[in-house]
Amino acid sequence: MVLRLLAVLALLVGGLALGSAAPAAACSCVRLSPEEYAARADVAFVGSATSERAADGEVVYRFTVETVHAGRVNRTQDVVAPRTGSTCDQRLPLDRELLVLATLDARGRPALQDCLDVAWYAEDNYAGKVAAALGPGTRPLPGRSEVEVEDTPVRDLLWSAAAIGVVGALGMVVVRRLARTSGRG
């Protein structure tokens, strides 16, 4: 009986370790110098968020861009942000001119991935200093840049469930073998 209890406990601990693979997120950031922000940005522009749409785990903001300071940015540009976690659940205001500094995510999309990828009100004094560090701006590329979002949390959940199922099946095999061994002795 004790062996079964230990096996069940091991299964639960193993399942939790495999099933809770979400990254940890902190909601505090050190403010960088304007030059450090400028050097870090893959994409930098001044524009107004005109809409937002949510998909599992992400929000896509659509911007009308006025001035480009870094990267390939279209007149209508989408930027991805996580719904929770690394950006401190920050929602961008719609129809306000913002200075947006973003990095490219693993899929090459402009993204506000952490608290160092930021959007400030364009008229903010610090935003002006960052814009000056970025250098003179240019006009955006014509057209629209849409980003695709996918249901990765569902896929991750399926992989976690499969891993827990495998661990559970292996645990049952161990319990049966232990029961047979202890019954013989």
Structure description:
With 185 residues, this protein is α+β, with helices and mostly antiparallel strands. The chain has two domains: 2-22 and 154-184; 34-150, OB fold (Dihydrolipoamide Acetyltransferase, E2P), CATH 2.40.50. It has four helices and seven strands. The protein has helices at residues 2-19, 34-40, 125-134, 152-184, and strands at residues 43-55, 58-70, 74-82, 97-104, 110-111, 118-121, 141-145. Strands 1, 2, 3, 4, 5, 6 and 7 form a seven-stranded mixed β-sheet that branches. Helix 2 packs across helix 3. Mean pLDDT is 77; it is low at 15-25.
Protein traits:
4 helices, 2 domains, 7-stranded mixed sheet, 7 strands, alpha+beta, 185 residues, OB fold (Dihydrolipoamide Acetyltransferase, E2P), 37% helix
| Overall geometric form | elongated
Q: Kindly estimate the percentage of residues that lie in beta strands according to DSSP.
A: 25-35%
Task: Provide a count of the helices.
Answer: 4
User: Regarding CATH, which class of the largest domain?
Assistant: Mainly Beta
Structurally, the number of domains stands at 2
Protein structure class? alpha+beta
Fraction in helix: 25-40%
Distance between the termini: 15 Å
Largest sheet: 7 strands, mixed
> Average pLDDT across residues?
77
The number of strands is 7
